[in-house]
Amino acid sequence: MDEKKVIYFIYSISFLIFLALVWFIYFKNPATASYNVSFLSPLNCILNFLSATFLCLGIFFIKKKQEKYHKISMASALVFSAFFLVSYLIYHHYHGDTSFIGQGMWRPVYFFTLISHILLTIVGLPFILTTFYFALTHRYAKHRALAKWTFPIWLYISVTGVLIYLMLKLSGSV
Question: Is pLDDT above 90 for 92?
Answer without folding.
Answer: no
